[in-house]
Design a protein that fits this description.
The strands form 4 sheets. Strands 3-7-10-9 form a 4-stranded mixed beta sheet. A two-stranded antiparallel ribbon has the order 1-2. Strands 4-5 form a two-stranded antiparallel ribbon. Helix content is 56%, strand content 7%. The protein contains 26 helices and 10 strands. The chain has 555 residues and is α/β, with parallel strands linked by helices.
Protein backbone atom coordinates (compact mmCIF):
# COMPACT_ATOMS: atom_id res chain seq x y z
CA UNK A 1 0.00 0.00 0.00
CA UNK A 2 2.78 2.40 0.88
CA UNK A 3 4.62 1.61 -2.34
CA UNK A 4 1.43 2.10 -4.34
CA UNK A 5 0.39 5.41 -2.80
CA UNK A 6 3.83 6.93 -2.22
CA UNK A 7 4.33 8.29 -5.78
CA UNK A 8 1.13 10.34 -5.53
CA UNK A 9 2.19 11.80 -2.18
CA UNK A 10 5.76 12.51 -3.29
CA UNK A 11 5.00 13.88 -6.76
CA UNK A 12 1.83 15.71 -5.69
CA UNK A 13 0.69 17.93 -8.59
CA UNK A 14 3.37 16.40 -10.82
CA UNK A 15 1.61 13.04 -10.57
CA UNK A 16 -0.44 11.76 -13.51
CA UNK A 17 -4.13 10.93 -13.28
CA UNK A 18 -6.91 9.95 -15.65
CA UNK A 19 -8.56 12.95 -17.33
CA UNK A 20 -11.73 11.34 -18.68
CA UNK A 21 -14.49 11.20 -16.02
CA UNK A 22 -11.92 12.17 -13.40
CA UNK A 23 -9.95 15.42 -13.61
CA UNK A 24 -12.55 16.83 -15.99
CA UNK A 25 -15.19 16.02 -13.36
CA UNK A 26 -13.84 17.33 -10.04
CA UNK A 27 -14.84 20.95 -10.69
CA UNK A 28 -18.41 20.03 -9.79
CA UNK A 29 -17.06 19.96 -6.23
CA UNK A 30 -14.80 23.00 -6.51
CA UNK A 31 -17.62 25.08 -8.00
CA UNK A 32 -20.00 23.92 -5.27
CA UNK A 33 -17.47 24.61 -2.52
CA UNK A 34 -16.83 28.13 -3.85
CA UNK A 35 -20.53 28.92 -4.21
CA UNK A 36 -21.37 29.11 -0.53
CA UNK A 37 -24.50 27.06 -1.29
CA UNK A 38 -23.30 23.57 -0.38
CA UNK A 39 -26.22 22.82 1.91
CA UNK A 40 -28.87 24.80 0.01
CA UNK A 41 -31.57 22.69 -1.57
CA UNK A 42 -32.78 25.29 -4.06
CA UNK A 43 -31.30 28.30 -5.83
CA UNK A 44 -28.68 28.49 -8.57
CA UNK A 45 -24.89 28.46 -8.87
CA UNK A 46 -23.46 30.81 -11.46
CA UNK A 47 -19.96 29.49 -12.15
CA UNK A 48 -20.80 26.81 -14.71
CA UNK A 49 -23.37 26.24 -17.46
CA UNK A 50 -24.52 29.81 -17.11
CA UNK A 51 -26.68 29.52 -14.02
CA UNK A 52 -27.09 25.87 -13.04
CA UNK A 53 -29.61 24.78 -10.36
CA UNK A 54 -27.91 23.95 -7.07
CA UNK A 55 -29.67 20.57 -7.08
CA UNK A 56 -27.72 19.51 -10.20
CA UNK A 57 -24.41 19.65 -8.31
CA UNK A 58 -23.09 16.99 -5.89
CA UNK A 59 -24.74 16.23 -2.57
CA UNK A 60 -23.93 18.44 0.38
CA UNK A 61 -24.02 15.32 2.57
CA UNK A 62 -21.06 13.58 0.98
CA UNK A 63 -17.56 13.19 2.38
CA UNK A 64 -15.93 14.19 -0.93
CA UNK A 65 -17.89 17.45 -0.86
CA UNK A 66 -16.73 18.08 2.69
CA UNK A 67 -13.09 17.52 1.71
CA UNK A 68 -13.37 20.21 -0.99
CA UNK A 69 -15.05 22.51 1.53
CA UNK A 70 -12.19 22.39 4.05
CA UNK A 71 -9.13 21.74 1.87
CA UNK A 72 -7.56 23.33 -1.23
CA UNK A 73 -8.57 21.37 -4.37
CA UNK A 74 -5.45 19.26 -4.85
CA UNK A 75 -5.20 18.37 -1.17
CA UNK A 76 -8.86 17.35 -1.22
CA UNK A 77 -8.22 15.21 -4.31
CA UNK A 78 -5.15 13.57 -2.73
CA UNK A 79 -6.77 12.94 0.67
CA UNK A 80 -9.77 11.40 -1.07
CA UNK A 81 -7.47 9.13 -3.09
CA UNK A 82 -5.64 8.00 0.08
CA UNK A 83 -8.91 7.38 1.93
CA UNK A 84 -10.41 5.38 -0.93
CA UNK A 85 -7.46 3.03 -1.32
CA UNK A 86 -6.93 2.67 2.45
CA UNK A 87 -10.60 1.82 2.97
CA UNK A 88 -10.40 -0.72 0.16
CA UNK A 89 -7.49 -2.44 1.94
CA UNK A 90 -9.07 -2.44 5.40
CA UNK A 91 -12.49 -3.52 4.15
CA UNK A 92 -11.23 -6.39 2.02
CA UNK A 93 -8.95 -7.63 4.79
CA UNK A 94 -11.81 -7.68 7.30
CA UNK A 95 -14.16 -9.42 4.88
CA UNK A 96 -11.62 -12.06 3.87
CA UNK A 97 -10.24 -12.66 7.34
CA UNK A 98 -13.57 -12.97 9.13
CA UNK A 99 -15.79 -14.59 6.50
CA UNK A 100 -13.77 -16.06 3.62
CA UNK A 101 -10.37 -17.21 4.93
CA UNK A 102 -11.12 -18.01 8.55
CA UNK A 103 -8.26 -20.48 9.05
CA UNK A 104 -5.56 -18.69 11.07
CA UNK A 105 -2.89 -20.36 8.93
CA UNK A 106 -4.22 -18.49 5.88
CA UNK A 107 -4.24 -15.01 7.38
CA UNK A 108 -1.32 -14.10 5.11
CA UNK A 109 -3.56 -14.74 2.13
CA UNK A 110 -6.12 -12.30 3.52
CA UNK A 111 -3.38 -9.64 3.67
CA UNK A 112 -2.35 -10.45 0.11
CA UNK A 113 -5.92 -10.42 -1.21
CA UNK A 114 -6.58 -7.09 0.49
CA UNK A 115 -3.38 -5.60 -0.95
CA UNK A 116 -4.35 -6.74 -4.43
CA UNK A 117 -7.86 -5.27 -4.20
CA UNK A 118 -6.58 -2.00 -2.76
CA UNK A 119 -4.13 -1.47 -5.62
CA UNK A 120 -6.83 -1.48 -8.30
CA UNK A 121 -6.70 1.93 -10.06
CA UNK A 122 -10.14 2.99 -8.82
CA UNK A 123 -11.93 6.06 -10.10
CA UNK A 124 -11.61 7.84 -6.77
CA UNK A 125 -14.14 10.52 -7.78
CA UNK A 126 -16.74 7.81 -7.07
CA UNK A 127 -15.63 7.63 -3.45
CA UNK A 128 -16.33 4.25 -1.87
CA UNK A 129 -18.89 3.23 -4.50
CA UNK A 130 -16.61 0.34 -5.52
CA UNK A 131 -13.63 0.49 -3.18
CA UNK A 132 -15.84 0.48 -0.07
CA UNK A 133 -17.98 -2.51 -1.04
CA UNK A 134 -15.89 -5.07 0.93
CA UNK A 135 -16.25 -2.98 4.08
CA UNK A 136 -20.00 -2.61 3.53
CA UNK A 137 -20.47 -6.34 2.92
CA UNK A 138 -18.36 -7.06 6.00
CA UNK A 139 -20.81 -4.92 7.99
CA UNK A 140 -23.87 -6.53 6.40
CA UNK A 141 -22.48 -10.02 7.07
CA UNK A 142 -21.92 -9.02 10.70
CA UNK A 143 -25.60 -8.06 10.93
CA UNK A 144 -26.60 -11.30 9.21
CA UNK A 145 -24.86 -13.16 12.04
CA UNK A 146 -26.04 -10.62 14.67
CA UNK A 147 -22.49 -9.50 15.52
CA UNK A 148 -20.77 -6.12 16.00
CA UNK A 149 -24.02 -4.23 15.45
CA UNK A 150 -22.84 -0.74 16.46
CA UNK A 151 -19.67 -0.88 14.36
CA UNK A 152 -21.66 -2.20 11.42
CA UNK A 153 -24.23 0.59 11.69
CA UNK A 154 -21.44 3.18 11.62
CA UNK A 155 -19.93 1.52 8.53
CA UNK A 156 -23.28 1.51 6.70
CA UNK A 157 -23.90 5.20 7.39
CA UNK A 158 -20.34 6.08 6.36
CA UNK A 159 -20.73 4.15 3.12
CA UNK A 160 -23.89 6.10 2.26
CA UNK A 161 -22.03 9.36 2.98
CA UNK A 162 -19.10 8.38 0.76
CA UNK A 163 -20.67 6.70 -2.27
CA UNK A 164 -23.19 7.31 -5.03
CA UNK A 165 -26.74 5.94 -5.04
CA UNK A 166 -27.27 6.02 -8.85
CA UNK A 167 -23.80 4.71 -9.69
CA UNK A 168 -23.62 1.83 -7.23
CA UNK A 169 -25.92 2.17 -4.23
CA UNK A 170 -29.14 1.18 -5.96
CA UNK A 171 -27.53 -1.99 -7.32
CA UNK A 172 -26.01 -2.88 -3.96
CA UNK A 173 -29.41 -2.42 -2.32
CA UNK A 174 -30.98 -4.64 -4.98
CA UNK A 175 -28.32 -7.33 -4.48
CA UNK A 176 -28.72 -7.23 -0.68
CA UNK A 177 -32.50 -7.36 -1.01
CA UNK A 178 -32.33 -10.39 -3.30
CA UNK A 179 -29.90 -12.08 -0.91
CA UNK A 180 -32.26 -11.44 2.03
CA UNK A 181 -35.25 -12.83 0.12
CA UNK A 182 -33.30 -15.91 -0.97
CA UNK A 183 -32.14 -16.53 2.60
CA UNK A 184 -35.71 -16.28 3.91
CA UNK A 185 -37.00 -18.58 1.16
CA UNK A 186 -34.31 -21.14 2.00
CA UNK A 187 -34.41 -21.04 5.80
CA UNK A 188 -37.67 -19.31 6.77
CA UNK A 189 -35.72 -17.53 9.48
CA UNK A 190 -36.15 -13.89 10.50
CA UNK A 191 -32.96 -11.85 10.57
CA UNK A 192 -34.11 -8.44 11.79
CA UNK A 193 -30.58 -7.01 12.07
CA UNK A 194 -29.80 -7.86 8.45
CA UNK A 195 -33.10 -6.48 7.14
CA UNK A 196 -32.58 -3.47 9.38
CA UNK A 197 -29.13 -2.91 7.86
CA UNK A 198 -30.63 -2.85 4.36
CA UNK A 199 -33.33 -0.42 5.52
CA UNK A 200 -30.71 1.75 7.21
CA UNK A 201 -28.63 1.95 4.02
CA UNK A 202 -31.72 2.89 1.99
CA UNK A 203 -32.78 5.51 4.54
CA UNK A 204 -29.27 6.95 4.72
CA UNK A 205 -29.22 7.31 0.93
CA UNK A 206 -32.56 9.15 1.08
CA UNK A 207 -30.77 11.78 3.17
CA UNK A 208 -27.39 11.86 1.42
CA UNK A 209 -29.01 11.97 -2.03
CA UNK A 210 -31.59 14.58 -1.05
CA UNK A 211 -30.65 16.83 -4.00
CA UNK A 212 -31.04 14.02 -6.53
CA UNK A 213 -34.42 13.05 -5.07
CA UNK A 214 -35.54 16.69 -5.10
CA UNK A 215 -34.66 16.97 -8.80
CA UNK A 216 -36.45 13.77 -9.65
CA UNK A 217 -39.70 14.32 -7.75
CA UNK A 218 -40.11 17.82 -6.32
CA UNK A 219 -38.39 20.37 -8.59
CA UNK A 220 -41.36 21.89 -10.40
CA UNK A 221 -40.78 22.39 -14.10
CA UNK A 222 -37.27 20.92 -14.12
CA UNK A 223 -36.56 18.84 -17.23
CA UNK A 224 -33.16 17.15 -17.31
CA UNK A 225 -30.81 17.15 -20.28
CA UNK A 226 -30.79 13.35 -19.89
CA UNK A 227 -34.33 13.22 -21.28
CA UNK A 228 -32.89 13.49 -24.80
CA UNK A 229 -30.38 10.66 -24.43
CA UNK A 230 -30.79 8.38 -27.45
CA UNK A 231 -28.59 5.34 -27.14
CA UNK A 232 -29.66 3.88 -30.48
CA UNK A 233 -28.63 7.06 -32.33
CA UNK A 234 -25.35 6.98 -30.41
CA UNK A 235 -24.65 3.59 -31.95
CA UNK A 236 -24.79 1.69 -28.66
CA UNK A 237 -27.28 -0.94 -29.88
CA UNK A 238 -25.64 -4.28 -30.78
CA UNK A 239 -26.72 -7.24 -32.85
CA UNK A 240 -26.36 -10.71 -31.35
CA UNK A 241 -22.70 -11.00 -32.39
CA UNK A 242 -22.02 -7.61 -30.82
CA UNK A 243 -23.80 -8.62 -27.61
CA UNK A 244 -21.69 -11.80 -27.38
CA UNK A 245 -18.55 -9.71 -27.86
CA UNK A 246 -19.62 -7.33 -25.08
CA UNK A 247 -20.36 -10.22 -22.72
CA UNK A 248 -16.98 -11.81 -23.45
CA UNK A 249 -15.10 -8.53 -23.08
CA UNK A 250 -16.83 -7.65 -19.83
CA UNK A 251 -16.30 -11.13 -18.37
CA UNK A 252 -12.62 -11.34 -19.30
CA UNK A 253 -11.51 -7.71 -18.94
CA UNK A 254 -14.25 -5.84 -17.07
CA UNK A 255 -15.27 -2.26 -17.82
CA UNK A 256 -13.00 0.70 -17.21
CA UNK A 257 -15.26 2.59 -14.79
CA UNK A 258 -15.43 -0.54 -12.64
CA UNK A 259 -11.93 -1.73 -13.46
CA UNK A 260 -10.87 -5.03 -11.89
CA UNK A 261 -7.77 -6.11 -13.87
CA UNK A 262 -8.64 -9.73 -13.26
CA UNK A 263 -7.50 -11.54 -16.40
CA UNK A 264 -4.65 -13.36 -14.62
CA UNK A 265 -7.10 -14.38 -11.92
CA UNK A 266 -9.50 -15.76 -14.54
CA UNK A 267 -6.98 -17.45 -16.82
CA UNK A 268 -4.38 -18.71 -14.30
CA UNK A 269 -5.59 -18.71 -10.68
CA UNK A 270 -9.08 -20.05 -11.36
CA UNK A 271 -8.03 -22.97 -13.64
CA UNK A 272 -5.28 -23.96 -11.19
CA UNK A 273 -7.64 -23.91 -8.23
CA UNK A 274 -10.36 -25.86 -10.04
CA UNK A 275 -7.95 -28.41 -11.52
CA UNK A 276 -5.76 -29.02 -8.48
CA UNK A 277 -8.08 -28.33 -5.59
CA UNK A 278 -11.26 -30.14 -6.51
CA UNK A 279 -11.09 -32.15 -3.29
CA UNK A 280 -11.70 -28.99 -1.24
CA UNK A 281 -15.41 -29.14 -1.96
CA UNK A 282 -16.45 -26.07 0.05
CA UNK A 283 -14.03 -23.67 -1.66
CA UNK A 284 -14.56 -25.39 -5.03
CA UNK A 285 -18.32 -24.80 -4.78
CA UNK A 286 -17.85 -21.17 -3.70
CA UNK A 287 -15.52 -20.41 -6.63
CA UNK A 288 -17.91 -21.98 -9.16
CA UNK A 289 -20.87 -20.10 -7.63
CA UNK A 290 -19.07 -16.74 -7.74
CA UNK A 291 -17.82 -17.37 -11.29
CA UNK A 292 -21.40 -18.07 -12.33
CA UNK A 293 -22.49 -14.83 -10.68
CA UNK A 294 -19.83 -12.79 -12.50
CA UNK A 295 -20.87 -14.39 -15.79
CA UNK A 296 -24.53 -13.54 -15.12
CA UNK A 297 -23.59 -9.90 -14.46
CA UNK A 298 -21.64 -9.82 -17.72
CA UNK A 299 -24.60 -11.33 -19.59
CA UNK A 300 -26.87 -8.63 -18.12
CA UNK A 301 -24.30 -6.03 -19.20
CA UNK A 302 -24.29 -7.32 -22.79
CA UNK A 303 -28.07 -7.76 -23.08
CA UNK A 304 -28.58 -4.17 -21.94
CA UNK A 305 -27.04 -3.08 -25.25
CA UNK A 306 -28.90 -5.56 -27.46
CA UNK A 307 -30.94 -4.18 -30.35
CA UNK A 308 -34.00 -5.97 -28.97
CA UNK A 309 -33.77 -4.36 -25.53
CA UNK A 310 -32.81 -0.94 -26.88
CA UNK A 311 -35.77 -0.92 -29.27
CA UNK A 312 -38.18 -2.18 -26.60
CA UNK A 313 -37.33 0.61 -24.15
CA UNK A 314 -36.60 3.37 -26.68
CA UNK A 315 -39.62 5.43 -25.64
CA UNK A 316 -39.25 4.87 -21.89
CA UNK A 317 -37.40 7.75 -20.24
CA UNK A 318 -36.25 5.72 -17.23
CA UNK A 319 -34.34 3.17 -19.30
CA UNK A 320 -32.76 5.85 -21.46
CA UNK A 321 -31.45 7.85 -18.52
CA UNK A 322 -30.71 5.10 -15.97
CA UNK A 323 -27.97 2.55 -16.66
CA UNK A 324 -29.45 -0.67 -15.30
CA UNK A 325 -26.43 -2.72 -16.43
CA UNK A 326 -24.33 -1.25 -13.61
CA UNK A 327 -24.73 -4.39 -11.53
CA UNK A 328 -21.30 -5.10 -13.06
CA UNK A 329 -19.92 -2.54 -10.58
CA UNK A 330 -19.97 -5.50 -8.18
CA UNK A 331 -17.38 -7.27 -10.35
CA UNK A 332 -14.19 -6.01 -8.63
CA UNK A 333 -15.42 -7.19 -5.23
CA UNK A 334 -16.44 -10.60 -6.55
CA UNK A 335 -13.28 -11.16 -8.60
CA UNK A 336 -10.98 -10.49 -5.66
CA UNK A 337 -12.98 -12.74 -3.37
CA UNK A 338 -12.56 -15.40 -6.09
CA UNK A 339 -8.83 -14.63 -6.12
CA UNK A 340 -8.58 -15.11 -2.35
CA UNK A 341 -10.50 -18.39 -2.49
CA UNK A 342 -8.27 -19.64 -5.32
CA UNK A 343 -5.18 -18.78 -3.29
CA UNK A 344 -6.66 -20.65 -0.35
CA UNK A 345 -7.16 -23.77 -2.45
CA UNK A 346 -3.77 -23.56 -4.16
CA UNK A 347 -1.86 -22.89 -0.92
CA UNK A 348 -3.14 -26.20 0.48
CA UNK A 349 -1.63 -28.23 -2.36
CA UNK A 350 1.05 -30.48 -0.89
CA UNK A 351 4.69 -29.44 -1.32
CA UNK A 352 4.28 -26.65 -3.89
CA UNK A 353 1.06 -24.95 -2.77
CA UNK A 354 2.51 -22.03 -0.83
CA UNK A 355 5.08 -21.38 -3.55
CA UNK A 356 2.40 -21.36 -6.26
CA UNK A 357 0.20 -19.04 -4.20
CA UNK A 358 3.12 -16.69 -3.62
CA UNK A 359 3.94 -16.63 -7.33
CA UNK A 360 0.31 -15.85 -8.19
CA UNK A 361 0.22 -13.04 -5.64
CA UNK A 362 3.43 -11.62 -7.10
CA UNK A 363 2.05 -11.89 -10.64
CA UNK A 364 -1.22 -10.13 -9.80
CA UNK A 365 0.44 -7.40 -7.75
CA UNK A 366 3.00 -6.88 -10.51
CA UNK A 367 0.20 -6.51 -13.04
CA UNK A 368 -1.62 -4.05 -10.78
CA UNK A 369 1.52 -1.98 -10.19
CA UNK A 370 2.13 -2.02 -13.93
CA UNK A 371 -1.25 -0.30 -14.25
CA UNK A 372 -0.20 2.43 -11.82
CA UNK A 373 0.25 5.59 -13.88
CA UNK A 374 3.64 6.49 -12.41
CA UNK A 375 5.17 3.01 -12.38
CA UNK A 376 3.93 2.49 -15.93
CA UNK A 377 5.76 5.64 -17.08
CA UNK A 378 8.99 4.38 -15.47
CA UNK A 379 8.59 0.91 -17.04
CA UNK A 380 7.92 2.41 -20.46
CA UNK A 381 10.92 4.72 -20.18
CA UNK A 382 13.26 1.93 -19.15
CA UNK A 383 11.99 -0.91 -21.35
CA UNK A 384 9.66 0.57 -23.95
CA UNK A 385 7.10 -2.00 -22.80
CA UNK A 386 3.74 -1.47 -21.10
CA UNK A 387 1.24 -3.82 -19.46
CA UNK A 388 -1.30 -1.08 -18.83
CA UNK A 389 -4.90 -1.89 -19.66
CA UNK A 390 -7.12 0.96 -20.89
CA UNK A 391 -4.00 2.95 -21.74
CA UNK A 392 -6.12 5.40 -23.77
CA UNK A 393 -7.38 6.85 -20.48
CA UNK A 394 -3.92 8.04 -19.49
CA UNK A 395 -2.74 10.99 -21.56
CA UNK A 396 0.62 11.63 -19.89
CA UNK A 397 -0.51 14.96 -18.45
CA UNK A 398 0.09 15.68 -14.78
CA UNK A 399 -2.44 17.25 -12.45
CA UNK A 400 -0.53 20.54 -12.44
CA UNK A 401 -0.12 20.56 -16.22
CA UNK A 402 -3.79 19.80 -16.78
CA UNK A 403 -5.08 22.70 -14.69
CA UNK A 404 -2.16 25.04 -15.58
CA UNK A 405 -3.04 27.58 -12.90
CA UNK A 406 -0.25 30.06 -13.67
CA UNK A 407 -1.19 30.12 -17.37
CA UNK A 408 -4.83 30.83 -16.55
CA UNK A 409 -3.69 33.46 -14.05
CA UNK A 410 -2.10 35.33 -16.96
CA UNK A 411 -5.43 35.32 -18.78
CA UNK A 412 -7.20 36.54 -15.65
CA UNK A 413 -4.69 39.36 -15.15
CA UNK A 414 -5.00 40.44 -18.78
CA UNK A 415 -8.79 40.65 -18.64
CA UNK A 416 -8.44 42.53 -15.38
CA UNK A 417 -12.04 42.24 -14.22
CA UNK A 418 -13.70 40.32 -11.37
CA UNK A 419 -14.50 36.91 -12.84
CA UNK A 420 -18.10 36.97 -11.70
CA UNK A 421 -18.78 39.99 -13.94
CA UNK A 422 -18.44 38.09 -17.23
CA UNK A 423 -18.86 34.66 -18.76
CA UNK A 424 -16.49 32.70 -20.97
CA UNK A 425 -16.52 29.55 -23.11
CA UNK A 426 -13.61 27.39 -24.22
CA UNK A 427 -12.62 25.69 -27.47
CA UNK A 428 -10.23 22.73 -27.38
CA UNK A 429 -9.75 23.35 -23.67
CA UNK A 430 -11.73 21.47 -21.02
CA UNK A 431 -14.13 23.85 -19.23
CA UNK A 432 -13.04 22.07 -16.05
CA UNK A 433 -9.69 23.86 -16.41
CA UNK A 434 -11.21 27.33 -16.50
CA UNK A 435 -13.75 26.49 -13.78
CA UNK A 436 -10.97 25.15 -11.54
CA UNK A 437 -9.20 28.48 -11.96
CA UNK A 438 -12.26 30.45 -10.93
CA UNK A 439 -13.70 31.52 -14.31
CA UNK A 440 -17.47 31.62 -14.81
CA UNK A 441 -18.31 29.49 -17.83
CA UNK A 442 -21.21 28.97 -20.20
CA UNK A 443 -19.92 25.47 -21.00
CA UNK A 444 -19.39 22.54 -18.70
CA UNK A 445 -20.09 18.91 -17.94
CA UNK A 446 -22.65 17.54 -15.51
CA UNK A 447 -24.71 14.37 -15.35
CA UNK A 448 -27.82 16.53 -14.95
CA UNK A 449 -28.55 20.09 -16.04
CA UNK A 450 -31.61 21.82 -17.53
CA UNK A 451 -32.66 20.69 -20.99
CA UNK A 452 -33.68 24.26 -21.83
CA UNK A 453 -30.09 25.40 -21.29
CA UNK A 454 -28.78 22.65 -23.57
CA UNK A 455 -31.09 23.93 -26.32
CA UNK A 456 -30.03 27.55 -25.77
CA UNK A 457 -26.33 26.60 -25.87
CA UNK A 458 -26.87 24.53 -29.00
CA UNK A 459 -27.77 27.66 -30.95
CA UNK A 460 -24.17 28.84 -30.52
CA UNK A 461 -22.76 25.76 -32.26
CA UNK A 462 -25.66 24.77 -34.55
CA UNK A 463 -23.72 25.40 -37.79
CA UNK A 464 -20.68 23.48 -36.51
CA UNK A 465 -22.81 20.50 -35.51
CA UNK A 466 -24.46 20.47 -38.92
CA UNK A 467 -21.01 20.00 -40.50
CA UNK A 468 -19.92 17.09 -38.29
CA UNK A 469 -22.33 14.15 -37.73
CA UNK A 470 -20.19 12.73 -34.91
CA UNK A 471 -20.26 15.89 -32.81
CA UNK A 472 -23.93 16.44 -33.68
CA UNK A 473 -24.90 13.02 -32.35
CA UNK A 474 -22.61 13.36 -29.34
CA UNK A 475 -24.16 16.69 -28.34
CA UNK A 476 -27.78 15.97 -29.26
CA UNK A 477 -28.06 12.33 -28.23
CA UNK A 478 -25.82 12.35 -25.15
CA UNK A 479 -25.71 15.98 -24.10
CA UNK A 480 -23.97 15.57 -20.74
CA UNK A 481 -20.97 17.34 -22.28
CA UNK A 482 -22.03 20.90 -23.09
CA UNK A 483 -18.95 22.11 -25.00
CA UNK A 484 -18.27 24.11 -28.15
CA UNK A 485 -17.47 21.37 -30.67
CA UNK A 486 -15.77 22.76 -33.81
CA UNK A 487 -16.44 20.58 -36.85
CA UNK A 488 -12.74 20.72 -37.79
CA UNK A 489 -11.65 18.90 -34.62
CA UNK A 490 -11.58 15.11 -34.54
CA UNK A 491 -10.82 15.10 -30.81
CA UNK A 492 -11.89 17.78 -28.38
CA UNK A 493 -8.68 18.75 -26.59
CA UNK A 494 -6.04 20.71 -28.50
CA UNK A 495 -2.51 20.75 -27.10
CA UNK A 496 -0.10 23.39 -28.32
CA UNK A 497 2.12 20.67 -29.80
CA UNK A 498 -0.69 19.88 -32.26
CA UNK A 499 -0.34 23.32 -33.89
CA UNK A 500 -3.98 23.22 -35.01
CA UNK A 501 -5.85 26.15 -36.53
CA UNK A 502 -9.57 26.64 -37.00
CA UNK A 503 -10.10 28.08 -40.46
CA UNK A 504 -13.83 27.58 -41.00
CA UNK A 505 -15.39 28.13 -37.59
CA UNK A 506 -19.02 29.32 -37.63
CA UNK A 507 -20.44 30.35 -34.27
CA UNK A 508 -23.62 32.25 -33.48
CA UNK A 509 -22.08 35.01 -31.41
CA UNK A 510 -25.45 36.68 -30.84
CA UNK A 511 -26.65 33.48 -29.13
CA UNK A 512 -23.35 33.44 -27.21
CA UNK A 513 -23.89 37.00 -26.01
CA UNK A 514 -27.54 36.31 -25.20
CA UNK A 515 -26.35 33.78 -22.61
CA UNK A 516 -23.97 36.40 -21.21
CA UNK A 517 -20.81 35.27 -23.02
CA UNK A 518 -18.06 37.85 -23.55
CA UNK A 519 -14.78 35.96 -23.98
CA UNK A 520 -13.68 32.77 -25.74
CA UNK A 521 -10.53 30.96 -24.65
CA UNK A 522 -9.40 28.79 -27.55
CA UNK A 523 -6.56 26.27 -27.51
CA UNK A 524 -6.43 26.54 -31.32
CA UNK A 525 -5.92 29.73 -33.28
CA UNK A 526 -9.13 30.91 -34.97
CA UNK A 527 -8.01 32.32 -38.29
CA UNK A 528 -11.46 33.58 -39.31
CA UNK A 529 -12.25 35.22 -35.98
CA UNK A 530 -13.47 38.43 -37.64
CA UNK A 531 -16.15 36.51 -39.56
CA UNK A 532 -17.37 35.28 -36.17
CA UNK A 533 -17.67 38.80 -34.75
CA UNK A 534 -14.69 38.19 -32.49
CA UNK A 535 -11.79 40.41 -31.57
CA UNK A 536 -8.40 38.77 -31.03
CA UNK A 537 -6.82 40.06 -27.80
CA UNK A 538 -3.75 38.02 -26.84
CA UNK A 539 -1.96 34.69 -27.04
CA UNK A 540 -0.83 33.06 -23.79
CA UNK A 541 1.67 30.24 -23.36
CA UNK A 542 4.11 28.73 -20.86
CA UNK A 543 6.85 26.27 -21.68
CA UNK A 544 5.70 23.62 -19.20
CA UNK A 545 1.97 23.77 -19.95
CA UNK A 546 0.46 21.53 -22.65
CA UNK A 547 -2.01 24.31 -23.50
CA UNK A 548 -1.73 27.47 -25.54
CA UNK A 549 -4.58 29.94 -25.14
CA UNK A 550 -5.84 32.42 -27.71
CA UNK A 551 -8.13 34.97 -26.07
CA UNK A 552 -11.00 36.46 -28.08
CA UNK A 553 -13.69 38.94 -27.13
CA UNK A 554 -17.19 39.04 -28.61
CA UNK A 555 -17.80 42.27 -30.49
Amino acid sequence: MIAYLAPFVILRQNAHFTINDNLDWITAWTVLANSGKTFNLTGTVGQMLGEVPRSCLPSGFNIITWLYLVLPPFRAYLVNLLLVHSTAFIGMYLLLRHYCLTDQRQSWLAWAGAAAFATIPFYTVYGLSIAGQPLLFYAMTNLFHDKKVIVSVIIIITFALYSSLPLAGVFILAALGLAALYDYWQHRQNRPQFWGGIALLAAAYCITELWLIYNAFFSAGFVSSREEINRISLGQARDWAGVQALITENFTNGQYHAVSLHKYILFIAVPLALALGWRQKREFKQIVLLLTLTLCLSILYGLRYSEFFMSAVAGISFFNTFQIQRFHWLHPLIWYIIFALCLSVIANIRYIGRLLATLLIGLQLGFLFGNHSEYNLVIQKQTGFSVMENAWLYENVSYGEFFSDSLLKKVDNYIGRPKQEYRIASIGLYPAITQYNGFYTLDGRLNIYPLAYKHAFRQIIAKELAKNPFWQSYFDDWGITCYIFPAELEYYQVRKSYQLKLNHLELDIEAFKKLGGQYILSAAEITNYEENQLEFLQRFTEAWSPWEIYLYRAR
